[in-house]
Design goal:
The complex is a heterodimer of chains A (549) and B (276).
Chain A: H1 6-27, H2 33-41, E1 45-47, E2 52-57, E3 62-64, H3 65-78, E4 82-85, E5 90-93, H4 101-110, E6 127-128, H5 143-153, E7 168-171, E8 185-191, E9 197-203, E10 215-222, H6 223-240, H7 251-258, H8 260-272, H9 282-295, H10 313-322, E11 323-325, E12 331-336, E13 347-349, H11 350-363, E14 367-370, E15 376-382, H12 386-395, E16 410-411, H13 426-442, E17 450-453, E18 467-474, E19 477-484, E20 496-497, H14 507-521, H15 529-536, H16 539-547
Parallel strand pairs in A: 6-7, 7-8, 16-17, 17-18
Antiparallel strand pairs in A: 1-2, 2-5, 3-14, 4-5, 4-13, 8-9, 9-10, 11-12, 12-15, 14-15, 18-19, 19-20
Helix pairs in contact in A: 1-2, 1-4, 3-11, 5-9, 6-8, 7-8, 13-14, 14-16
Chain B: E1 2-5, E2 10-13, H1 18-25, E3 27-30, H2 38-42, E4 47-52, H3 59-71, E5 76-81, H4 88-93, E6 98-101, H5 103-109, H6 111-115, H7 117-120, H8 135-140, E7 147-149, H9 151-160, E8 165-168, H10 172-178, E9 180-181, E10 186-188, H11 203-209, E11 218-221, H12 227-237, E12 243-246, E13 273-274
Parallel strand pairs in B: 3-4, 4-5, 5-6, 7-12, 8-10, 8-11, 11-12
Antiparallel strand pairs in B: 1-2, 1-6, 9-13
Classes of the chains: A alpha+beta (549), B alpha/beta (276).
Chain lengths: 549, 276
């Protein structure tokens, strides 16, 4: 992984000092709450229903065991003993006190972490493929360009007060595991004929109340042109994005109102005159970062492939569900489900964090990743260690074998924590998880994505799920609307509303009928849910759910 | 009114007539108005005032960038309105030359907050922004160049020299388990520490403590030439003048089978080495 040099280190330390000063000025009354709000947000501090919430960045999802132990320490010392992995490779603490947050930022800086720009109307944490650097289907490792973008966006003086938040995601593999087309700007790294990285740039994706799949802005942009292009794209957005209505302020609305062609013309006009002085060192810096990642990668010699068939059924099923192909033979990418039966998606206790850190030291060269599906990945596991790892995980309640299955639910914190929510997400996720785990034990349902949002802002990514659930408030009662057919991969699409919503108690039954319908209509076990849905359409699902077939 | 200028180094109080009058004679643009366009550049005034209707509205930053770019260093660009002390750094880095503050704003935030506005924040950004220094430039635009030699060439030079030192910057684990080059004036100082690989914050101090001066010819070696180059750059920043990076390192690059110690490097070249 990337390690800070002294420049990076003094940068985060200075930023933590600055925030301490801002908190002191707020407590002294020099800053009004309205003025303090964007400053605290840009250090990841929200005011939620019951308390402050601190969101810490895990840039492109990469962590080491020392950092995870520190997060566990923060969970136990400043929170109620747990943290919550989010859908954008961040971790949230739900109960810190305002006066403690400067100390927490100092603790984070000690292990090369920060909470900079994890919220607010600025460039947010750059997210990426959790299999970056080890995926069997990778063209280009997306982490170096992600780190380059992290540095470029940190405290960018021009883009700290944008019309609205701005999210980047980067992938470099055939399969998009970073949902790049649901981001303001999505970047798909590929290799040109000479093996050099080039970047396809997508713009205008997003979820919320106006879900949009990003459109291709330009393909095969060379590295040297990428950073000036991003600067120009942001400048046009900052000047022309709407500020009269926060629900129409994201770049997707600007691109839609101007038209992609007109937006592109504006950006190209800006690019023609852009100041290139800030970017003269980009190639050297990219190379330096690539070298830093190379140096930080453990030696992985190809090993003999091993036969895992002669083992216990439970381990075998875990391997089938949770282990992904590694680029080096004899090695494995182990995915760890943070979706136990009946549990809260993405919640991990301080004790589990420490235990996971120990397991990562033993079995993954001290490194791990956090996924946008709120799970954990061990990227450097020798296949011969998988069984011991599985047993270690089971012992701490993290041995669930449901990665990519319907019970691997994404859920936002919902009305239990969030000030924006209109309905609870967590109890619905827990009931569905209990029902789905029972069904998955009996039948092979295949991979299905099921996501839950507690309001129209769609933090739970319901639009991008095969089965999406949106919690609303209808006449003072929680009501859950179901969407079908969404997907967040390279064939991204927005789910369609099935019909009238359901009371909380009726949601598991409706989902069960939807799954029955899929199993009945799929053209063989290989046909995935969104493909079946695209082929047969909405009607058979509506009939099963509402008519009661 | 108050004027903050010189990149935030100067905060002075003025009568409302003097500075304010100068600004009023120039072009005044409200960032809240939809007129942030070419007409503003066409104006031949040497003074552009941009008003921030609220501290939440960052359009003025992008607009100042454009004005500075189109009109060059000669034009005065003044920020007025509802800026926060915390935004002063951003304003200067985006090309503003002055920030005009009402007495009420200075009173509420306090003179101290405005005077220290640009020093409490990280002043070095990664990318160059206006006159501010940049981390990327510091990393890449050095005057002194680190010499690069292969392990065979470096070994030859070391034999000829009477005071050159071989500085091994790998981790203690590597010294112990992989072995070290045999050379009488060898020093081992870790660039990254074992086991987490974080940068050794005391590297430069430890080099000085080992008796290496800024004039000592230092040959730096690591596994394959990457860490030693970074270490050499750090020493260069600290004033060391005679630096040579052993480009293929002790173990060299990986071969097609992903193994080191075969293709190149000190070991593969069969130069003398030993193991504890």
């Amino acid at each position: 992984m990337y390690h800070y040099d002294h420049h990076d280190q003094s940068f985060v330390e200075a930023r933590a000092r600055e925030f301490r000063n801002q908190v002191e000025r707020r407590l002294a009354g020099q800053l009004t709450e309205d003025e303090f709000k964007p400053l605290r947000l840009q250090n990841g501090l929200y005011l939620q229903l019951h308390a402050y919430m601190l969101r810490v960045a895990i840039p492109y999802g990469e962590l080491n065991s020392q950092q995870l132990r520190k997060l566990g320490y923060i969970a136990d010392t400043y929170d109620k003993g747990y943290g919550h992995f989010t859908t954008r490779q961040n971790i949230q603490f739900n109960w810190p006190k305002l006066v403690d947050t400067p100390d927490i930022l100092d603790h984070l800086a000690d292990v090369q972490m920060h909470a900079i720009q994890t919220s607010g109307n600025c460039i947010r944490n750059v997210t990426s493929d959790p299999f970056a650097g080890v995926a069997a289907d990778e063209f280009i490792d997306p982490r170096p360009v992600s780190e380059l973008m992290r540095q470029w966006s940190m405290l960018h003086p021009e883009f700290a007060f944008l019309p609205r938040k701005f999210k980047f995601a980067v992938t470099g593999a055939a399969e998009d595991r970073a949902a790049i087309k649901f981001h303001d700007i999505g970047i798909w790294a590929k290799a040109d004929a000479a093996g050099e990285p080039v970047f396809d740039v997508y713009v205008g994706g997003g979820q919320g109340r106006t879900p949009r799949v990003a459109k291709l802005f330009e393909s095969a942009v060379p590295l040297i042109e990428l950073m000036p292009l991003l600067d120009a794209m942001l400048r046009v957005y900052n000047l022309h994005g709407r500020r009269d209505n926060k629900y129409k302020a994201r770049i997707k609305i600007l691109v839609e109102e101007l038209g992609l062609e007109n937006y592109r013309d504006e950006v190209r006009a800006e690019l023609a005159n852009i100041d290139r002085a800030p970017f003269v060192s980009v190639e050297g810096e990219y190379e330096r970062i690539c070298n830093a990642f190379e140096e930080g990668t453990p030696e992985m010699s190809p090993e003999e492939a091993i036969d895992l068939s002669a083992t216990t059924p439970a381990f075998k099923r875990w391997v089938e569900s949770n282990v992904a192909a590694h680029r080096v033979q004899g090695w494995a990418i182990a995915q760890i489900s943070v979706k136990p039966k009946g549990g809260i998606p993405g919640d991990v206790t301080g004790a589990q964090m420490r235990a996971l850190a120990d397991l990562a030291d033993h079995y993954s060269r001290g490194e791990l990743r956090i996924t946008h599906r709120q799970n954990v990945v061990f990227p450097y596991v020798q296949a011969t260690d998988l069984e011991a790892l599985y047993q270690g995980l089971s012992a701490i309640g993290l041995g669930e074998d449901n990665i990519g299955e319907a019970s691997d639910i994404i859920a936002c914190p919902g009305l239990d924590y969030c000030a924006l929510a209109t309905a609870r997400s967590i109890p619905v996720a827990q009931e569905l998880s209990t029902m789905l785990r029972a069904r998955e034990a009996a039948d092979d349902l295949g991979p299905i994505s099921l996501n839950i949002s507690g309001c129209i802002n769609a933090c739970g990514h319901h639009h991008a799920a095969n089965i999406g659930i949106l919690g609303l408030n209808k006449a003072e009662k929680e009501n859950y609307q179901i969407t079908l057919g969404g997907r967040s991969d390279e064939r991204a699409s927005v789910g369609e509303i099935l019909g009238p919503g359901f009371a909380q108690d009726d949601v598991p039954g409706a989902v069960s009928k939807i799954i029955d319908t899929y199993l009945r209509l799929r053209a063989g076990e290989q046909e995935r849910f969104p493909d079946t849905y695209a082929r047969v359409g909405k009607e058979p699902f509506k009939e099963a759910v509402y008519v009661g077939a | 009114m108050w004027v903050l200028k010189d990149q935030g180094a100067s905060l002075t109080h003025h009568d409302d007539s003097s500075e304010g009058a100068a600004a009023a004679s120039g072009l005044r643009v409200d960032a809240g108005e939809p007129c942030l366009d070419e007409q503003s550049f066409a104006n031949d005034t040497n003074c552009v005032t941009l008003n921030f209707p609220s501290s939440h509205d960052g359009r003025g930053f992008s607009f100042a960038r454009r004005v500075r770019r189109e009109r060059g260093e000669g034009v005065r660009i003044i920020a007025t309105g509802n800026l926060l002390p915390d935004q002063a750094r951003m304003a200067f880095q985006c090309g503003f030359s002055e920030i005009h503050l009402t007495d009420a704003l200075v009173e509420r935030h306090g003179e101290v907050a405005w005077r220290t506005a640009t020093t409490t924040a990280p002043d070095a950004l990664y990318t160059k922004s206006g006159k501010a220094p940049s981390i990327w430039d510091a990393r890449h635009q050095h005057r002194v160049k680190v010499q690069s030699l292969t392990s065979v060439e470096a070994h030859e030079e070391l034999q000829k020299s009477v005071n050159a030192v071989l500085l091994d910057v790998r981790t203690s684990a590597e010294w112990q388990f992989v072995g070290r080059p045999s050379f009488e004036r060898s020093v081992g100082i870790q660039w990254q520490t074992f086991p987490y690989g974080s940068e050794n914050p005391n590297f430069v101090t430890e080099v000085a403590d080992a008796g290496l001066t800024q004039e000592t010819p230092i040959f730096l070696i690591c596994r394959s030439g990457v860490r030693s180059l970074a270490a050499a750059e750090a020493l260069k920043e600290a004033g060391y003048k005679d630096l040579t990076n052993v480009s293929d390192g002790f173990e060299g690059a990986k071969n097609a089978a992903g193994r080191r110690g075969i293709l190149n490097g000190w070991k593969a070249a069969q130069l003398p080495w030993n193991q504890d």
